[in-house]
């Protein structure tokens, strides 16, 4: 099972490393302890929305961008580890894309960025 806090921590760490920033620098700018930020990045602690906003501010990245990336990663993990079986859901409750998920391919019009990640 994929945990949201782990994906969030991975995205935050990747952004920080991509900027060649240290944990100490980001923790100081975000006004959070170095140890706590480290635990958030390792997916060991759940960060509040206020803390996430502060970390994103320190990284100079909009919170919406971080959440979008986490959402994309979560969708990819769901597709890889827990495929939706249309037969398990009554037809009246099925999402329009459920049938295509069973076949393992999504139409290009649905989540194109996820299709790109799955193809890679």
Shape: globular
Which percent bin holds the helix content? 55-70%
Report mean pLDDT, rounded to a whole number: 79
Total number of strands? 0
**CA gyration radius, whole angstroms:** 17 Å
What's the tally of helices?
Answer: 7
User: What is the first-to-last residue Cα distance?
Assistant: 21 Å
Low-confidence region ranges? 83-87, 97-107
Biggest beta-sheet profile: none
What structural category arises from helix and sheet content?
A: mainly alpha
Q: What is the percentage of strand-forming residues? A: under 5%
In N-to-C order, the SSE pattern is HHHHHHH
Tell me what you see in this structure.
The protein is 62% helix and 0% strand. With 120 residues, it is mostly helical. The longest helix is centred in the middle third of the chain and has 19 residues, at 63-81. Pfam families: HTH_31. Residues 12-66 form the HTH cro/C1-type domain. This is Helix-turn-helix domain-containing protein.
Summarize the structure.
By secondary structure, the protein is mainly alpha-helical. Helices cover 62% and strands 0% of the residues. The chain is built from seven helices and no strands.
């Amino acid at each position: 099972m994929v945990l949201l806090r782990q994906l969030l921590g991975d995205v935050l760490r990747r952004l920080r490393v991509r900027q060649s920033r240290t944990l100490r620098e980001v923790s100081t700018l975000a006004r959070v302890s170095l140890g706590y930020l480290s635990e958030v990045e390792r997916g060991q602690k759940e960060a509040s929305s206020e803390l996430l906003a502060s970390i994103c501010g320190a990284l100079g990245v909009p919170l919406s961008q971080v959440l979008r990336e986490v959402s994309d990663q979560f969708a990819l993990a769901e597709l890889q580890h827990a495929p939706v079986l249309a037969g398990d859901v009554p037809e009246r409750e099925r999402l329009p894309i459920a049938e295509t998920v069973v076949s393992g391919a999504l139409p290009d019009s649905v989540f194109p960025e996820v299709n790109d990640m799955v193809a890679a």
